[in-house]
Write a structure and sequence with these properties.
Helices cover 73% and strands 3% of the residues. It is mainly α and 399 residues long. It has one domain. A three-stranded antiparallel β-sheet has the order 1-2-3.
Length: 399
Amino acid sequence: MYTKVQHILKRTQGDKIIWGIVIVLSMISLMAVYSSTGSLAYRMRQGHAEYYLIKQLIELVLGLVIIYLAHKVNYVIYSKIAVLFFAISIPLLIYTLFFGTTLNEGSRWLKLPGTRLTFQTSDLAKLALFMFMARQLSRIQNDLDNFKRVCINIFLPLIVICGLIAVANLSTALMIAISCSVLFFIGRIRIKHLLILAASSLLLFGVIFGASKVFKFGRAETWEARFTNFFSDNKEDIPYQVLQAKIAQAKGGLTGVGPGNSSQRNFLPHPYSDFIYSIIIEEYGLILGGAGLIFLYLLFLWRSIIIFRRCPFAFGAFLAVGLSFTLVFQALLNMAVNVNLVPVTGLTLPLVSMGGSSIWFTCLGIGIILSVSRFVESNEKNEQNEDTIVDEIKEEQEA
């Protein structure tokens, strides 16, 4: 067994710091989920929180396996997979809107036939879109002045995916749109074209919001209530979950009340998913828990940017920076909701919140980033070996 583990570790390549961040976030996830699922276990009559601890452990272990397998694949292959994923995600999103499992007035989940498992089709669509955008950006780098081609190859796929997601999950659609806009800016799309994209996106949102209000479908009333409550000066308009999150953070202070000692986990809705960051601050404090998590995510982004700068090919560079930025941006948005900097959303904390398919799709994205990193390291090593051989030949000739 020990020999097999050693063999796997030797075959594990890619950025070691990113690997370390994934391990640390997984450990934080296990501790936070175990601490915050006591009341959930009681309500669901599971009897003990160990059920959810074991469940989360299994999902994280499978996630690590996904990362390992994905990082061993040559990242160039993901260019072809991106087209397949993108083609599959559109009909899945449409099917989910009409026949998906509905929760909180939003149809976001699909149930796998013959099982009790569900997954959010937006998770697949998000991963597929960023892979597809990296492919498309790399293909038209020499033709970015052609607005028609930029619209067809870049803007149209984004608008289609975000439009289908926005009906049931506006926060995810907005996050994807902003993340893609950053990727487009990095990919040298013209500013005037980006402004046209922004205007088109606002128009699309207006159409979706108006249609939702008129025909009484979707979540227009929920969106309106969240924005109204967020900007209201009346303290009675503060959402219950935001109030409980503030209490948890105030109790935690700078140093926290200690692991497993949270009291707000019994009052805060979804303390194991949307508001797990507040529980972490309550138990581990603002310094270690709050600032520590932010540091880990920003460190992840920094290492991905280094991969982006070192990758000699456009597709791999865009792939690394696009997937990493959306992951970190989602984490920062989740934290911002917890501390009431933005209106309430349904975004989870990547790799930390309790979940199954969302963790696996996140791990697949990380595995792809590490695949690019593995290629960069291999390419640089080959270049160093070639330089060494040339230097040795020159020394022999001089001798």
